[in-house]
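Collaborator request, handled under Task 6.
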Amino acid sequence: MAEGDLMRRLQKLASSLGARLFRQQVGMAWVGKVERGPGHFRLAAGDVVIRNARPFHAGFEGMSDLGGWVPVEITHDMIGSTVAVYAQVEVKENGRPTKEQTAWVDAVNNAGGRAGVARNEADLNQILWR
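Structure tokens returned to the collaborator:
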């Protein structure tokens, strides 16, 4: 099974349990005014010219694959109220998380969120509903 398939299964499970997890892409791309041929330059099939190009950075190194929230009922003085607790899930089918990914998971947990590495549905349950 591909890691993308596992990710989608975990997102579906989280939703069925009342949580919401969204795909978080990390990387860099170029943005600007797009021009497609023909023009005064030679383009190969699939090429795109970007005028006034500037880099667009999404996420940051170590950011988890999935992020969102877990609904949590709070205690005594606000019984019945529900708050959203920040959640991050690093999806790994076979590999190991990088030190940056582990640091991010630790930071979220230390701040009161819920984060961890999920290789299957049982791992996701443990992360979200501990």
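The cover message to the collaborator said: "Residues 3-16 form the longest helix (14 residues). The longest strand covers residues 49-58. Please let us know whether this matches your experimental observations."
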